[in-house]
Design goal:
This protein is of the alpha/beta class and about 475 residues long. About 35% of the residues lie in helices and about 15% in strands. It is built from 16 helices and 20 strands. Helix 4 packs across helix 5. The termini are far apart. About 50% of the residues are buried. The chain binds pyridoxal-5'-phosphate (PLP).
């Protein structure tokens, strides 16, 4: 009997998970029966799109915790929530203000809903991380007064937390709606050190519970302030999500909420202490803290673990995977780990053991053992952003032809392309591909990129015959 999925997933058990879902492989409460409890809308259950029973109650408990006007459970990840909030806030043909490091899901809804993406000018930290200031949002909104909303990122993959309160002030003083991607900050609802996006002034915001809390994959939340018409928002959600939402995912969202309400404060405090001690130990092995010197007004989420990798991020991630420790992401110089809140101690202990063994290898000059691991050069971002030649929604549905990345300079991309993770575009559909981006794409292994076709080619807008 061939059961390839089962064979694949069995290998995952027994490994150390420092990636999403942040369950660490464990349900927050015992007695979770996947097949027995998977169900649908019945007279005794409830309906996600018209909740009156348990779903309504779970959402009310969540809204109270997040201090939101309304909170909607999502079984399609933050992606579904981001799509719904743009459909709520903007109409076809309208510009929307985005940060340069916007997640690809926002660009997808711009393409399908005919919204015009306008990028606010980015700033960079000393170590090259991208963020967007309130002033940049103000300038973009002043240049596009017909934009009904701006979209901000409250925390990025590496834990850099933006100055959302200042951004909210810039957006609201111009009479616009602030939409926010807090996919990596679901646990802010329980944190005392970092307020959630709603407390900073966001009108609508999404949180991927599965990224930082013990919730199943694709479990996420969409929160709305008291000014938002929650019933209209829910009808938009119906357009972006399946009509058969997974009750298991919804259950896991409520279990994560209940577990955090009961044990969250203690668990978060303990995890913070464990992580600070871990950083000192890792630094002694040569793996320095990768979260340093945030610009004024910004800070780091210290529950996200970023380590500098002297041997290169990809090489270190590969070495750790060989030792059965899987991290969330690597780039040229770092690894990024998502530490499971309900199991942080064991996961960090196993990570430290694996780092010790890797450091020993490095220090004893046993370089050949490291060198045999295939080094995958990993993406930086372009130094010059591409110029738009066609509207996104036009190019995304235009007739295309496949072009090799190396030969793509000067062509107009028919797709949005970038590294995954983190899902940030180097190029959106309708952009002219620069020489530098063509080179970056040619140098990056195709499996690390989203947007290319199966053969690793870039679908480019077909040239018209002369
Ligand atoms: C910043 C950001 N926003 C949104 C998303 C989409 O979240 P989800 O996977 O829950 O759909 C991701 C996914 O990695 C992300 O990193």
């Amino acid at each position: 009997m061939l059961r390839p999925m089962r064979r694949m997933l069995r290998q995952v058990a027994g490994r150390t998970s420092l990636h999403m879902p942040a369950t660490g492989g464990r349900a927050p409460f015992r007695g979770f029966h996947a097949y027995r409890w998977d169900t649908t809308e019945l007279p005794i259950t409830d309906d996600l799109y018209h909740p009156t029973g348990a779903i309504a109650q779970a959402e009310a408990l969540l809204a109270a915790r997040a201090d939101a006007g309304a909170s909607l459970m999502l079984s399609g990840g933050s992606t579904a929530g981001i799509h719904a909030m743009f459909l709520y806030a903007a109409k076809r043909g309208q510009p929307v203000i985005l940060p340069r490091n916007v997640h690809v899901s926002a660009l997808s809804i711009c393409a399908t809903a005919g919204l015009v993406p306008i990028f606010a000018e980015p700033s960079f930290t000393k170590d090259g991380r991208l963020y967007t200031t309130a002033e940049a949002y103000a300038r973009a909104l002043d240049a596009h007064p017909d934009a009904p909303c701006a979209f901000a990122l409250h925390v990025d993959y590496e834990g850099l937390v933006s100055d959302l309160a200042a951004i909210a002030q810039a957006v609201h003083s111009r009479g616009k709606l602030l939409l926010c991607d807090e996919a990596h900050g679901a646990y802010f609802n329980w944190r005392e050190d970092i307020p959630n996006a709603g407390a900073c002034g966001a009108d609508l915001y999404v949180q991927s519970a599965h990224k930082t809390l013990p919730a199943l994959t694709a479990g996420a939340w969409l929160h709305a302030s008291r000014q938002v018409d929650a019933s209209r928002l829910r009808s938009m959600l119906r357009m972006t999500q399946t009509s058969s939402p997974s009750f298991l995912t919804l259950l896991s969202l409520d279990e994560a909420r209940a577990w955090m309400d009961a044990r969250g404060s203690r668990a978060l405090g303990r995890m913070g202490l464990l992580l600070e001690r871990f950083r000192e130990q890792a630094a002694r092995l040569g793996y320095a803290d990768g979260q340093c010197d945030p610009p004024r007004g910004l800070r780091y989420d210290r529950l996200r673990l970023v380590l500098c990798a002297p041997e290169g991020g990809a090489l270190l991630a590969k070495r750790l995977a060989d030792l059965r420790v899987d991290v969330e992401m690597s780039d040229t110089a770092h690894i990024v780990c998502i530490v499971p809140i309900n199991g942080a101690k064991g996961a960090l202990r196993r990570l430290l053991r694996a780092l010790r063994s890797t450091a020993r290898m490095r220090n004893t000059q046993d370089q050949s053992a490291l060198r045999h691991l295939e080094s995958v050069p990993l993406p930086m971002r372009p130094t010059v952003w591409p110029t738009r030649r066609l509207p996104l929604h036009e190019a995304a549905f235009a007739e295309t032809e496949p072009v090799t990345p190396a030969a793509s300079a000067g062509r107009i991309s028919g797709v949005t392309v970038g590294p995954y993770p983190p899902g940030i575009a180097w190029l959106t559909a309708g952009d002219e591909i620069t020489q530098e981006i063509a080179m970056l794409l040619a140098q990056t292994p195709p499996e690390r990129l989203f947007g290319l076709d199966q053969a690793g080619m870039i679908p480019c807008v077909k040239l018209k015959a002369e």
